[in-house]
Amino acid sequence: MKLALVADLHANREAVGAVLAHAAAQGAERHVFLGDYVGYGADPGWVVDRVREHVAAGAVAVVGNHDAAVVQGPQPSMVADARAVVEWTRSRLDRQQLAFLAKLPLAESVGDALFVHANAFAPGEWAYLVGRGEAMRSLLATDRRFTFCGHVHVPMLYHLSSTGKAGDFAPLPGVAIPLSSQRRWLAIPGSAGQPRDGDPAACYAIFDTTEHVLTFFRVPYDHEAAAAKVRAAKLPAALAQRLGGGR
Amino acid sequence: MDAEADVVAPASLEVGDVVDGFRLDAVAHRGGMATLWHVSRVDPVAGDPPFLMKVPRVRGGEDPAAIVGFEVEQMIMPALAGAHVPRFVAKGDFTRVPYIVMEQIDGASLRERFDAAPLAIDEVARIGAKVATALHDLHRQHVVHLDVKPSNIVLRRRDEGGEGGEGDAVLIDFGLSHHDLLPDLLEEEFDLPMGTSPYMSPEQVRFVRNDPRSDLFSTGVMLYELTTGARPFGMPSSVTGLRRRLYRDPVAPRTIRPDCPPWLQEIVLRCLEVRPDRRYQTASQLAFDLLHSDQVALTSRATRTGSGSTVRTMKRWLASLAEREALPGGVAGAAARSPIVLVAVDVAAAEPALLDSVREAALRLLKSEAGARLACLTVMRIHRIGMDDLLEPDGTGRHVKLLVELRHWARPLLHAFAGGTRADDAASRITYHVLEAPDPASAVVEYARRNQVDHIVLGARSSGRLRRHLGSVSARVAAEADCTVTVVRANDGER
What we know:
The complex is a heterodimer. Chain A is built from 8 helices and 12 strands. Chain B has 3 domains: about 90 residues, Phosphorylase Kinase, domain 1 (2-Layer Sandwich), CATH 3.30.200; about 210 residues, Transferase(Phosphotransferase), domain 1 (Orthogonal Bundle), CATH 1.10.510.10; about 150 residues, 3-Layer(aba) Sandwich (Rossmann fold). In chain B, helix 15 packs parallel to helix 17.
């Protein structure tokens, strides 16, 4: 079965729309949403509604730190831009949308796979997986062979061999990567709504659960329209600007 | 972890066992890392060649190299195609029986030829050209072999005789290989250089695994051995011994075999250069020289005698600087001009491989035309009469969508421009255009004429059937345009 993995959607309607259309064209049969549906972007309600629709149809969705913040109210650890957007986002979601976010689990396992927003070792503390060491810690914290995370907005694939050696790999879009059964894998599809690797195109990945083949994708979308909406909503200007550079 | 009822320990496989529809007929070879079986399908398929099944030795506590190498091979083999690799048929998971079923190549390993070395000069060149041709095909598929040696090359048998009855060279055993687009499972695994010591390149000794020119070094070792009967660096068994090839030159082949022609020594020693940028840059260049010995450009390598000293290495390095300066042409003359280059792409419908090739062609052009301006153009086809439905159901205009796709396609070109200039300067030298027209060919020609375009680059469809059906835009542009036209075809190694 082809599983579409979408992370860090961040209220970007143009990006999420383009990603979902691309996944449909690729024959994705199920969806997994890896958290952070809101924050930064101008269309939180629209994005939350799309995720809700998919969950109603059998999709998996886990909670991200931005979703939790919007439900709980801003936290002192957030940067100023993020905090401003959390306040704004709360005002734009209705009760049902907030209730949906409030009910999302921190992590969910399906078969061989674990889905979690930040990491497997402390999902609710939102530590970033920024290198092999952290990735290894997460891989050792679960007995599942495949872990899929968001949170870090850059696509990445980590692997742990049977001899305990960890490797990392910056995946190229459109290349089908067979994931050997002889090791553990941790994949970060990258951010759909706010990519940060210098390429503005939206990120997501498709995992074939039968063949164990993972393919990362980049989907170009109208980031200028998304940025214009961020400006029109009087959200911090930097949030509009970064979409064009993918930063 | 996944203890399933039908797990079969590989060591317990016996003749007559059936694994995933393949019957084990006989042991073909028992090696240190794996066992090869002759197998056949329980339900035969017409046209099947004979099959081999490779089963790794994975009993508890054994060399992890065997396991990781097999993982690598299971990952890379299905991604390969063409006459120069065994056809991949099936693979089995480590959770049950790990195996790879592949075509059994009808032919002999090169190993036997090496037992007969030194060989006749023309035979050395012929075998070398076959190996280089096979390597080029592999490199085009993003793979560096990293264990090129006689026992990993099979020459297909060819019934019709010809060149001694031998056909294409086939590369086997991808357990140490590197695929440029896939994770490198070996990169972090071992603390010792990986490869076969006589054939390993200096880069491999230094743990660099992604340079295709490493395979050309190994080919050079084989050519040396076939020519002289000796190995250029012996068969070191220690890392110190391996490292010697980083600084010590081999004895010149002509010193060992006086009838070795200068052109062959030139080729062999060029392959064996320590620095990859002093070797052949592609396997096809090496194959070309081996096939056209009269056209090999001779340098001081051709007449060297004995073993090079450090001083000699230094001298050759200086000589290479002089050679470089003497190169004809150069970029200075072209720099003054500022041509306008129009790149027309069908971002909506062209095959990805063609889009890549067109961008590659444009990039090459930009690199040689320092002051060029680039216009990226795509044509949105509309009907001659009546209004098209310009809006897609989701409310995004087709026009905007094309523009977005065009700009995405052109991003690497923008980066190429940005090298050395300010980012906004780069952006001002590249423009994007979506033309709405019923006839793409005349729209491109007309646009070029109006804008004094110097050079049009566009792709040609690869499928003859499609071309007949839709007509060739590129052919018409090439025929009707006033300026230079470059027609690009996809070069993806799968034709």
